[in-house]
Design a protein that fits this description.
37% of the residues lie in helices and 21% in strands. It is of the alpha/beta class. It is globular and about 55 Å long. It binds NADPH dihydro-nicotinamide-adenine-dinucleotide phosphate.
């Protein structure tokens, strides 16, 4: 039996085990997907190998650490420098980033978008900023602190911390911070958020499965919005496709994975 897991801290909220196990069960694949709580990201590879995993997903806050521990990184993850999917292939740890394509597929329903403001500067913000730029949508990044802004600046993406930022018009406001995930915080100070939402056409919170304070503010604003469920599904389908070595089509995987959302 092949073994898979998701690594994160926190990880108890993750729906990935349910999503991937539903696919394995429905497609008759002998495999099992578990959760691994990991506080020290530098130990990711050791734990992956000691559990004899065939593949894994990586969530907050270890995506950059996972990137650093891969033997090879493929696709858009090479630019993003953060991976959320690991596959063991012929003794080598291969890293991918399925968040980027998953997000782009999830925002199709907003219609044409010219620019977007990304709140946060972590692995997910990197993935989304590169994906948006590839999709000809201009990204701007706003993070709480300046420590993580270098990546974006080197990529030629406008990036600010709270201190140096003035509100502007953005078609889409996207929360990629972990504010609201296991606390009751907003990703940016409330007055600034209210002004940004009043000048925007839509908003996305990549957190899923709960009403975050950010999501509550969007609902009050009356803007079209999405939580992270569609992105979760899309990135999960792509990860499962990689785990199963391309044996099943994306559509074949999507049906049982989508069904797991109603369980
Ligand atoms: P990282 O740990 O890499 O980055 C977290 C970011 O959040 C940092 O920029 C950090 O700022 C900021 N942050 C944390 N707490 C606060 C706060 N209280 N106020 C303001 N900013 C804060 O996380 P990831 O990028 O890996 O993940 C971020 C979120 O995205 C998680 O909630 C995760 O669950 C979700 N996610 C959802 C997906 C989906 O499929 N729906 C896919 C991927 C991620 P600083 O630099 O100042 O510390």
């Amino acid at each position: 039996m092949k073994l898979f897991s998701i690594f994160g801290d926190p990880v108890h909220h993750s729906r990935s085990p349910l999503m991937h196990n539903s696919v394995f069960k429905r497609l008759g694949v002998s495999a099992c997907y578990s959760r691994t709580h990991l506080s020290d990201g530098t130990q990711l590879r050791n734990v992956f190998e000691s559990k004899k995993l065939s593949g894994a997903n990586v969530t907050v806050p270890h995506k950059e650490a996972a990137y650093a521990q891969c033997d090879e990184v493929r696709g858009i993850a090479k630019t993003i420098k953060a991976v959320n999917t690991l596959v063991y292939e012929k003794g080598k740890l291969i890293g991918y980033n399925t968040d980027a394509d998953g997000f782009m597929s999830a925002i199709q329903s907003f219609g044409p978008i010219k620019n977007a403001l990304i709140l946060g500067g972590g692995g997910t913000a990197r993935a989304l900023s590169i994906a948006l730029r590839q999709g000809e949508i201009t990204p701007t990044v706003l993070n709480r602190s300046s420590g993580r802004l270098d990546f974006f600046i080197q990529e030629g993406i406008k990036a600010y911390c709270w201190d140096g930022f003035t509100a502007d018009d953005y078609d889409l406001i996207i929360n990629t911070t972990s504010a609201g995930l296991s606390d009751n915080e907003l990703p940016i100070p409330r007055p600034l958020l209210i002004e940004l939402l009043s000048r925007s056409k839509g908003a996305v919170d990549v957190i899923y499965g709960k009403e975050t304070p950010f999501l509550r503010e969007i609902k009050i604003s009356g803007l079209p919005y999405k939580d992270g469920s569609d992105m979760l599904l899309a990135q999960g389908v792509l990860a499962s496709y990689l785990f199963l070595g391309g044996e099943f089509s994306l559509k074949t995987i999507e049906v049982p994975m989508q069904h797991s959302f109603s369980l």
